[in-house]
Amino acid sequence: MPLVDRLQNETRAHYAGLETLICVQALAAGTLPPDCHRALHQALAILQQALTQALAATSHPVLVALGAEALPVHPLLEQGLVSGVPQDRLESHALIGAIALGVRMRSAAHREPLSLLGYHYALRLALFPLPGTSPWREFAQRLEGVTIEAAEEEGLVRAASEAFSLIRRLLDALHPARELPPTWWLNRDAGEHPMTMDLDELQAALRAAEASWEEFPYYACRYGEHGRQFSWSDSAWLVTLSGQAEAQVWKHISWLGGLLAGRGMPRLMLERHLRMLYQELVHAKPMQRRAYDVLWQVAERMAEERRRLLDDQELRTFGEDFDVRVGPEWSQRLRGMGELLAAAVADECCGLAQAVPSLAAWMCEPSRFPEPWIRAVEETLTRARAFCRVRIPSGMAGRE
């Protein structure tokens, strides 16, 4: 099936669902309240800016041509009412979802460049097509002669569906207005907890989450998109700890690290994320550096606890040895797994009893991995346990 036909087929239900929304009907009837109209414009401005930046960051000729296009303004979205991207704090919680999708698009520009065609299709062509136009015709023409592999096509279609889902969620909650906690826009299952509402900080938190997922493909393989949303909401919460006393921040982050380790994420992953978050925050708001320093300090404290058992070079050695054992195909598909195994053993020796079982059970599943991989996991755990246990400092073993 041609790609454009597949896109139409797989997004038809999304599009039909949009037309049933009260918000869309009010927009068409000209009865959408001004504050909702403004929030919608700001959300679209955020998405347009993010897509334009993502397209500009790629070198694929098809994407370069798309990036040079000017986006026409739909008659329903009068130019006189267009509000640009907010510059400081967010006026509407609905904008949080648009920011999250914007960060995802910019991340995709580096990871899966052709998935930007899916975002382009949904956001520029399908959501608000101009009356009397056939947006798919020009889109199809652009794809003529472009070779797209199966994995790239899947990513492209997934991106289009993701954009439709986000916009539907935004419009559905925008009007009629509902009282929803800010975290709902990042993760509907996160509950109500604090998160930054500063635009720059929120974008930095989401960039850090995406960078963490890029460093460890294990995140996506095991936890999928649902897990990504928890990374978003957790990262946005971590920002709120900035400026607090180190002892208090350590208490919060130690709790989170133990919780995540028991769910298959060694504390090394949180340690690395905190460093990425700190760097993104300082880059975004350098004048606030002193407030953010506590995040780096806590990451370093967490690292020092691990280094008593397993220093950075030893951790890398375990990772390199594991990669040799599993071979280039698997070591590239799931980067960093040897380090995570060794780090989980260090967590176990620090008293987190479920750190290894929660990771090893997934990594030793025969339906998921070949025998050489499983053997490498078991051998790495055996060696790491022998290595760490002889180095347990007095008073550390069994500590919660």
Automatic annotation (TrEMBL):
<dbReference type="InterPro" id="IPR016084">
    <property type="entry name" value="Haem_Oase-like_multi-hlx"/>
</dbReference>
<protein>
    <submittedName>
        <fullName>Uncharacterized protein</fullName>
    </submittedName>
</protein>
